[in-house]
Specification:
5-stranded parallel sheet; Rossmann fold; 7-stranded mixed sheet; alpha/beta
């Protein structure tokens, strides 16, 4: 590996950064990150980055604002230290769901965050499954939007699920579900849902035949798990066999863990874009897949000015 590359880690997911650096055959960049007694963050780079190609790996997961602020400080620090190019590697992009005005007098926070990251000094952004592909257009710098479908599909292929139906959790999820069904050789079904509030949904209609089938439900994120759990209950009532849930980002907010433990899931699959606490890891049937190779290969290609999109050809 060319020695002009430096990969640094924020405090949100250091384990993932270490795995990425191991894949690249380099050491994690040295930096000192501390908090003052009043809560302010202090950061000092302990590696020379002048003229280097620098990457910062930081998921803006819970605590979202603290991790976001740390990322901005890191980017500003690298810019002022004369790094040649700065890439913000954000495995999980917080605030991605606030991407439009769906009511009066509300902000478009995803655009605000994109502006902050650009202003802080990022020359490029790498992220995985940003909830909506159009978020790439919120940035005025290049964005490499990676898809974890390849990671999940590889796992499902090895399982060789018979009588498979991939179920879209809502209308907006149809394209993703259709891609999984095509790759895995399964049928496609759709759940019609009605959102009651921010954490509760009602699922009562299913388009497609599911009786006697093995089900895979895939989404980009499991947050409160309301959609997944409500859908699984209806699927069981319709006579399905096993139900496997797969998602890129395991946020598991609010009552998610309790809901999942009470839901008829046989397996719950997430990736390591977000570090999981002991409560989440205690979920029965939980399996965590790594995005190390996905991110590591993207970083290597960016550093060598090679095509990133070719990874998904």
């Amino acid at each position: 590996m060319i020695q002009t590359i430096k990969v640094f880690s924020g405090t949100s997911n250091p384990g993932l950064t270490e795995s990425i650096c191991s894949y690249l055959g380099i050491s994690v960049g040295e930096a000192r990150i501390e908090s003052f007694p009043d809560g302010e963050k202090f950061l000092q780079l302990e590696d020379d980055v002048r003229g280097k190609d620098c990457f910062v790996v930081q998921s803006t997961c819970n605590p979202v604002d603290e991790n976001l602020m740390e990322l901005l400080i890191f980017l500003d620090c690298l810019r002022r230290a004369s790094a040649a190019r700065i890439t913000a590697v954000i495995p999980y992009f917080g605030y991605a769901r606030q991407d439009r005005k769906d009511a009066g007098r509300v902000p478009i926070t995803a655009k605000l965050v994109a502006n902050l990251i650009t202003t802080a000094g990022a020359d490029r952004v790498v992220s995985i499954d940003m909830h909506a592909a159009q978020l790439q257009g919120f940035f005025d710098i290049p964005v490499d939007h990676l898809l974890a479908e390849s990671v999940l599909s590889r796992y499902f292929k090895k399982k060789k699920v018979a009588d498979l139906t991939v179920v879209a959790t809502d209308v907006g999820n149809i394209k993703m579900a259709a891609r999984y069904a095509s790759v895995l050789g399964g049928e496609l079904a759709i759940i019609h849902k009605r959102r009651i509030n921010g954490s509760e949904v009602e699922c009562n209609e299913i388009i497609g035949e599911v009786a006697g089938r093995n089900i895979i439900m895939c989404d980009d994120i499991i947050s409160t798990a309301g959609t997944m759990c409500s859908g699984a209950k209806v699927l069981k009532e319709r006579g399905v066999k096993n139900i496997t849930v797969g998602a890129t980002h395991g946020v598991f907010a609010g009552e998610a863990i309790e809901r999942i433990n009470n839901a008829p899931f046989d397996e719950v699959i997430v990736t390591d874009t977000i570090p999981l606490n002991d409560g989440v890891r205690a979920i029965e049937g939980l399996r965590v897949l790594t995005v190390t190779e996905l991110l590591g290969e993207a970083i290597k290609r960016i550093h060598k000015n090679e095509s990133v999109s070719a990874m998904f050809s």
